[in-house]
Amino acid sequence: MPGGATVVRCERCGTKNRVPAAAPGVPRCAKCKAPLPWIVEADDANFGPVVEESTIPVLVDLWAPWCGPCRMVSPALEELARRYAGSVKLAKVNVDASPRLSERFGVQGIPTMLIMKGKDILARQTGAAPEPVLRDWLAKALQFPAA
């Protein structure tokens, strides 16, 4: 089932850390205490704990494995999760495996990205875009300083 712990290498010191899909606070390196990128999978069954109960905003990526634009945008989203480690969580939702979430969010095209805080949608983007465009979209929605 998606949503289990993943192993993340700290970009500062190289230590491998287990990062759960859902937890209070933000993941930090066990050795140097640097914030870790929080990239998880979510689905119909665990969306509440993984996304809606997150203590930080969540960038939700609604995608499918057969979707070329989804595969193109995925590295950009992962880069944003690394850039904003400790401030944003990335939750990847396979729309083929999570039909209730697709219906709930009215997904008509993929990739569709949402920025959520709790159950609130702060921003929505449909279609692939380059990393600088997605970075500006995310920064504007969360009122981060311009990058």
Order of helices and strands: EEEHEHEHEEH
Structural class: alpha/beta
Q: Could you tell me the mean pLDDT?
A: 94
Count all strands and give the number. Answer: 7
Number of helices: 4
- Calculate the terminal CA-CA distance, rounded to whole Å: 36 Å
Strand content: 25-35%
Report the helical percentage: 25-40%
Task: Return Rg in Å.
Answer: 14 Å
Strand order of the largest sheet: 3-5-4-6-7
Low-confidence runs of at least 5 consecutive residues: none
Oligomer kind: single chain
Q: Major beta sheet, specifics?
A: 5 strands, mixed
What is the CATH top level name?
Alpha Beta
CATH architectural designation: 3-Layer(aba) Sandwich
At the fold tier of CATH, the topology name is Glutaredoxin
Total individual domains: 1
The CATH H-level superfamily is Glutaredoxin
Shape: globular
